[in-house]
Amino acid sequence: MTHHLAPAPLLALTLPSAEVLYAALLARDPALDGRAYVGVTSTGIFCRLTCPARKPLRQNCRFFASPAECLAAGFRPCLRCHPLAPEASADPCIAALTAALEADPARRWREGDVAAMGFDPSTVRRSFRRQFGMTFLEMARQRRLREGMATLAAGGRVIEAQFDAGFDSPAAFRAAFARLLGRRPQTCRGTHCCRRTGSTRPSAR
Fold first, then answer.
1. Does residue 44 contact residue 196 with C-beta atoms inside 8 Å?
2. What is the DSSP letter of 140?
3. 18-77 adopts what CATH topology?
4. pLDDT value of residue 195
5. HTH araC/xylS-type domain: which residues (predicted)?
6. Going edge to edge, which strands form the sheet with 76-77?
């Protein structure tokens, strides 16, 4: 009887330790560029490890294996090191739409807006899901939600945060907030749980 050996399981790809990654960030080591990314909790920005901006404190750093993981965790791309540049250069719709989103983060996007820019909405959905694990419209909603989080972090009322985030429905705002942070909006007024949505300046760390 012939016995067929089962193939050995593939080892999951893992990042180096946080200490190694932080040292690479401080040194701007190109060896890990594109293989790991840092999310800075004090600014809400994520960067390449070779970013030229002032380096954050270690306690403000979270490390990720991909831009998609950074986006899913609620961070936005740095405007200095452009961590989405490889994806954007490979796909014109990603380049155009991410640039439009940064130019007007409070805009309430619809599929018709995407089509008006000359892109097929279904193609855009596939491209963004493939690269970032979310659609462009989901990315835009998340970006608006951060505006509301910043309002709460500054001590604003929940209703003010809701409108700043572009939500007409209080229930929809609470649900979106809970999905991203795992907390209710009213528990975050004036607290650091919203800190990562604060300054958009890459140097403010």
1. yes
2. H
3. DNA Methylphosphotriester Repair Domain (3.40.10)
4. 45
5. 117-191
6. 61-64, 37-40, 45-48, 76-77
Q: DSSP string spanning 87-110?
A: HHHH-HHHHHHHHHHHH-TT----
- Report phi then psi at 118, rounded to 5: 95, 15
Taking the alpha carbons at both ends of the chain, their separation in whole angstroms is 65
Question: In angstroms, what CA-CA distances link 77 with 72, 83, 163, 197?
Answer: 12, 6, 23, 12
- Domain ranges for the chain: 18-77, 85-136, 144-197
Helix (H) or strand (E) holding 139: helix 136-153
User: How far is it, in rounded angstroms, from Cα 201 to Cα 205?
Assistant: 8
Are 53 and 80 a contacting pair, CB within 8 Å?
yes
Q: What are the mean pLDDT values of the chain's consecutive 10-residue runs (205 residues total)?
A: 37 75 94 92 91 94 92 87 85 91 86 95 93 89 81 83 82 81 77 45 40
- The residues with which 199 forms a beta bridge, in sequence order, are none
Distance CA 109, CA 140 (A): 7
pTM of the entire predicted model: 0.65
Look up residue 165 and give its two tokens: 């985030």
Token couple for 103: 């130019």
Local structure of 64: helix, strand or coil: strand
